[in-house]
From TrEMBL:
It holds the Pfam family Oxidored_FMN. This is 12-oxophytodienoate reductase. It comes from the Bacteria. Residues 14-373 form the NADH:flavin oxidoreductase/NADH oxidase N-terminal domain. Coiled coil: none annotated.
């Protein structure tokens, strides 16, 4: 459904401040985390720093970095899709490098937080460590589609041991160490990648977590790993910095996967994670306007997360751009007037921030142009290969 594109005056609600714990951001338009692969030796350089600084200058209320690997040998690596030069938080040199990025963003008047991840079953084994999944499972490779089909075939064919309790404890500790490093680097808060089939999500998803308690079992019991990670990170970042948790229904292993089939099951999953110390749930969907549980009404996934937990939430997925096909990762290279839909749901109280990915990746001044009523450019898929 399309409605008229709102005028700058009508968009003003998106330009009101929001306080999340001890952090106040100037507006509700957030740069979503996007993997970039421009960190040779796992370190951000001046080009990465300039990339984030320009988005702060361009008016985004908050920047969430590309995903940064935790202090664990299996955190990041080759996913079978040619990804390389991924950042890590595993030493003092990384703290120093990211501190320069933070300083540049702060000098531009912006706020920035890192997104921590562990690739889990989405990573090939290497000389440092085997792949890591709660039950040694990638998922069903036959259900992967489009861009991820090759990845599924490569990764699912590799041996994937079942981790011990001690192995899992080491990963939790790695998240805590990375969170502490983010504090030392001066970041304004923290985000956790708990979606898309990566490690945290693989503990939440019944397809990849076949363990018995304490790390598996019912929907609520499968939250144990996420809860322990959130607790470790909360201790590291303290009580003033906000903690954002990204979650999703869909997985790279299966676009049609469901983390929860009913609102009650979603509450059983998000409730313990919320109680552990999350301030805002980032509901990642293929398209933000899709009803999460159509049989229960039109609420989006972000709307259900807010209703069920009482926490702040964020919408992300196809905002400002026409979405790709559900069965693939194709991108239609044209903008779309869906900001009116986002504004309508925002004003209805479904979510508190609006996260924009590819549009801001391509144009650092996208937020400023939006506010000024300027024309927004068509999306060029080639922009994902450069730092503009």
């Amino acid at each position: 459904m399309q409605i008229a594109s709102p005028s700058p005056a009508e968009l003003e609600p998106l330009f009101t401040p929001l306080t999340i714990r001890g952090l106040t951001i100037a507006n509700r338009l957030v740069m979503a985390p996007m993997t970039r692969g421009f960190c040779p030796d796992n370190l951000p350089g001046p080009d990465v720093s300039g990339y984030y600084r320009r988005r702060a200058e361009g008016g985004a209320g908050l920047l969430v970095t590309e995903a940064i690997g935790t202090a664990h040998p299996a955190a990041v690596g080759d996913t079978g899709l040619g990804e390389s030069n991924l950042p890590l938080f595993d030493g003092e040199d990384k703290v120093v490098a990211w501190a320069r990025v933070v300083e540049d963003v702060h000098a531009a008047g912006g706020h920035i937080i890192p997104q921590l991840w562990h690739q889990g079953p989405m990573r090939l084994p290497n000389g440092q460590a085997p792949a890591f999944s709660p039950s040694g499972r990638y998922g069903d490779p036959a259900k992967a589609a489009g861009y991820y089909l090759k990845q599924a075939q490569i990764i699912s064919a590799a041996p994937m041991p079942v981790p011990t309790d001690e192995d899992i404890a080491d990963v939790v500790a790695g998240f805590g160490e990375a969170a502490q490093a983010s504090v030392e680097a001066g970041f304004d808060g923290l985000a956790l990648h708990g979606a898309h089939g990566y490690l945290i999500d693989s503990f939440l998803w019944s397809e990849t977590n076949r363990r018995a308690p304490p790390w598996g079992g019912s929907a609520t019991e499968r939250t144990r790993f996420a809860v322990e990670v959130v607790r470790a990170c909360r201790v590291a970042i303290g009580e003033d910095r906000p903690l954002i948790f990204r979650f999703s229904q869909w997985k790279q292993q299966d676009f049609r996967a469901r983390l929860a089939d009913t609102p009650q099951e979603l509450e059983a999953i998000l409730g313990p994670i919320a109680d552990a110390g999350v301030d805002l749930f980032d509901a990642s969907v293929r398209y933000f306007d899709t009803p999460a549980f159509p049989e229960h009404g039109p609420l989006s996934l972000a709307g259900w997360a807010k209703k069920l937990t009482g926490k702040l939430t964020g919408a992300v997925g196809g905002i400002g751009l026409r979405s790709g096909k559900y069965e693939s990762d194709d991108v239609v290279a044209e903008p779309t007037n869906n900001l009116g839909l986002a504004l309508r749901r925002f004003e209805a109280g479904e979510f508190d921030i609006v996260s924009v990915g590819r549009a801001i990746l391509q144009d650092p001044n996208w937020v400023r142009k939006l506010r000024n009523g300027e024309a927004l450019p068509a999306f060029d898929p080639a922009s994902v290969s450069v730092l503009t």
